[in-house]
Amino acid sequence: MEQLAQQLINGLSLGSIYALIALGYTMVYGIIQLINFAHGEIYMVGAYVGYACMTFLGLGFFESLLIAMVACSVLGVVIERVAYKPLRNSTRIAALITAIGVSLLIQYTMMALVGADVRTYPALPDYLSASFNIGGVIISAQSILIIGTSVLLMVALQFIVHRTRLGKAMRAVSMDADAARLMGVNVDTTISFTFMLGSALAGAAGVLVGVYYNSINPLMGVLPGLKAFVAAVFGGIGIIPGALIGGFFIGTAETLVSGYLSSLFKDAVVFAILILVLIFRPAGLLGKNVREKV
Amino acid sequence: MKRTAILLAAGALSLSVFAGCSAKPVANAPEGGESADTIKIGLNYELSGDVATYGQASVAGIELAAKEINDAGGVNGKQIELVKYDNKSDTAEATTLATKLMAQDKVVAVIGPATSGGMKAQIQVAEKNQVPIVSGSSTADDLTVTNGKVNEYVFRTCFNDSFQGTSAANYSSEKLGAKTAVIIKDNSNDYSKGLAASFDAQFKANGGTIVGEEAYAKGERNFNSILTKIKGQSFDVIYLPGYYEEAGPAIKQARELGITAPILGADGYDSPKLAEAAGAGLTDVYFTNHYSSADTDPKVVEFIKTFKDANGEEPSAFNALGYDTMKFVADAVSRASELTGPAVKDAMAATKDFAGVTGTFSVDPETHNPVKSIVFIGYKDGKIAVTEKA
Predict the structure, then answer these.
(1) CB–CB of B257 and A263 under 8 A?
(2) A223 neighbourhood in chain B, CB within 8 Å
(3) N or C: which end of chain B has fewer CB within 10 A?
């Protein structure tokens, strides 16, 4: 029982990271039907920006988190403007291949810039390295930090999407871009704004992971990026609450598999879940099957 | 091809004799041939990628040794010329580079890669081109001996895994008084699996029990779930053979979860990155190593001083092993009957009482393993607190 509780906490910490990344995937897909494979790399860049802030500038955790989020949103918008915008009216496969290209470009640019070596975050202040023992279950301040920051950011996102003009514009564009344009919505700005939000969340996830696992490298975005994509598909791609549920589900599933079966199976299980979802609920957990109009 | 090379070299030699009469000496042999007055040694190392720390550290040691040898007049009057390539920690790349070094650059021996996987990728190439390959840090048992037969062209200057695993098991039973142990291994590499197997066998032979065995894959950063799983069991030590990249976060997370049992590892821990990644959790952590910078042997003290002067930091085991490996190769070349792969290989196999900074050793002609001692290094609060030779 104690062990199960501990595993669930481990799963929630991991799941909130996946959820943060999955949100970016799902928002971008929702608005331009593009699977942005470069998203995992934005998360990696976020981890490096946070590292640079803490190590070279000596900033604290929250300042670094903020700077990483800002840097990543700028990066996200630049990628969108340079790589995806010119392809907006071409085939979806062209945009997808471009996304894979951008992903590799960022990975290897980072490798050339910072080297392939693993880097470690500097030691954390005491209040972040403490841990609490509650009836044998150990909750570290870092898990609380990860889960707390993630939940806070998700609430902020919900607020932006549902309570602000830009959020309304986002929802309008995702429903029908042409109609939104006729209604006077600036579609390009809205799409850039979506990339900005998604990238900021990925950047935050990067810093959180850097603090939690204390080890970052230029290829760290590949697998979490793929798993977050699975999480987004699981919850129903394009649906924001779906990405949350998907993220937490994948994180918990992975933890329980390595805790009760073997850690060597966990990636296999995650991708098996993807296959099952695609077979039985192609639109995802929260998705509705919409019949294609002819 | 080989014959042409020798002919060209001979031609170059006679050319340089004639050149001696004129004002300008001809330094280099014609293209594609062996230089007349240098001995080419190939370096096939991980200068970037996952285990770049090992490759870079080995090369720093090798370059220091080569410089010392050259400053002292070279080997039999010839200077050593290092031909250095980066295999990017990729085994396929290591094979390609081995071929390039042997067939194109015509080296007499190749040093590196640092890891067993990279070394194994070169065996075929070495046998085919008849050029010996030497590693200072590849510890896999089946590297030098495959299916009971020694690989003629493969050498190493470090001990092998079964020796490390066995020593760690003995240390746990005798020094730490452990009766039960948990093994956490990296299932994606031979090094970790080999160590785990030999630890397992020896620990059981000492009367201990292995109460659990967990596995992870390369690149893993999240050990919380397997650690939570073993936390429920009772055990005296954890044997976690692996590389610092994964061991660092694993140790950190184990301590955060309140697991206080001693953790033992192997030479893959030897990197300053281990302490950075594990942070304050690096306490009661021990690992088997080739060398310790706290050694008081005059030879070692001298080496530490020159290394510090040249590189500005204390040498690690990889630096020391690289240094020894270069000296070992030079020693074999100086004793070889001629400057060809097979002759150098025979000289290497016949090495007796070679005095290096990682200990004095002889090469066992049956297994090509050096017979040498092992060092235990223990950490307390992130700092080295124990060094014992066994």
Answers:
(1) no
(2) 219
(3) N
CA dist list (Å): B289 to B137, B315, B385: 10, 13, 14
ipTM higher than threshold 0.85: no
Number of Cβ pairs closer than 8 Å across A and B?
92
Confidence at A290, pLDDT banded by 50, 70, 90: low
pLDDT score, position B87: 93
Closest Cα of chain B to A283: distance in Å?
30
Neighbouring-strand partners of residue B79 = B38
Contact A117/B53, CB-based, under 8 Å? yes
Does residue B73 lie in a domain region? yes
CATH number of the domain that residue B324 is part of: 3.40.50.2300
Instruction: With beta carbons under 8 A apart, name residues in chain A contacting B215.
Output: 262-264
- A40: nearest Cα among A220, A245, A197: A220
Q: pLDDT digit string (tens) for A114-169?
A: 877 788 888 777 777 788 888 778 888 888 888 999 889 989 998 999 999 999 99
Q: Are residues B191 and B139 in the same domain?
A: no
Q: pTM for the complete prediction?
A: 0.75
What is the span of the domain harbouring residue B279? 161-289
Residue B44 falls inside a structural domain = yes
B64 and B131 part of one domain: yes
Kindly list the strands in the beta sheet with B109-111, ordered across the sheet, starting from the edge strand earlier in the chain.
B79-86, B38-45, B109-111, B133-135, B154-156
If one counts the domains in chain B, the total is 2
Nearest in space to B39 (alpha carbons), one of B334, B307, B308: B334
Domain membership of residue B30 (yes or no) is no
Q: Do B279 and A214 touch (CB under 8 A)?
A: yes
User: Taking CB atoms and an 8 Å limit, are A214 and B248 in contact across chains?
Assistant: yes
